[in-house]
From TrEMBL:
InterPro entries: Flag_MotA_CS (IPR000540), MotA-like (IPR047055), MotA_ExbB_proton_chnl (IPR002898). Residues 101-217 form the MotA/TolQ/ExbB proton channel domain. It is found in: Cell inner membrane. The gene is motA. The keyword Membrane applies. The lineage of its organism: Bacteria, Pseudomonadati, Campylobacterota, Epsilonproteobacteria, Campylobacterales. This is Flagellar motor protein MotA. It is a multi-pass membrane protein.
Amino acid sequence: MDLSSLLGVFLAITSIAVGDILEGGNPIHVIHLSSLIIIIPTTLCASMVSTHAHHVKAAFKEIKIVFLNPKVNLQDTIKNIVELSTMARKDGVLSLESRVAQIEDDFTRNGFSMIVDGKDIKSVQESLDVAIEELEEYYHGAAHYWITAGESAPTFGLVGAVLGLMLALQKLDNPPAMAAGIAGAFTATVTGIMCSYALFGPFGNKLKNKSKDILKEKVMILEGIIGIANGDNPRDLEMKLLNYIAPGEPKKSQFE
């Protein structure tokens, strides 16, 4: 669970609500059903126009990692790679075949399978580089959808406000109803801005940033596969892979 996402959204909405209350307002009045209907579905649908259908699907599928951390554990991955390196160093690369078949991650399994099958290092690297590039494009497209939605929401908030004002001005003979209509119209502006800067935009940027962790793990796995194929010493390979762990995080060596 990513508390920074959950707390960020909650505290952003809370701070706006508290400020409104201190000014004598009522945050409940900002929640306007017609404004929500005009802005949220319209924004999400319009953002599909500038996004590849493949990435639209990815955007909704991967939105979960905004609130749930991706299953990336560099320390465990390094441990597994070093274990495989030790086996290969001791018994040869072919000894990895049974162990590789049990690997769940497609990228890792395919990479090790290629070196077990005797593929040359250049071919292995080229193949996995393409896989990494495609994965990067996948997450970039998914994040782009939400960022586009964040950029579009304030404009649709303005559209909602104009529509509300047009209806309100038709009630000139009823000043109280016109005033209520104008107040309701401006809730669309607030809704659009909040959706942009508290929800959609941050969703896209958080998705883009978290995808970097996933990609870093893949690059590290590729480095490990190449090291094993080259016959690198497991201790030296571990030292190289530990450099992928961010500063401030513990780096545990199996050889200490």
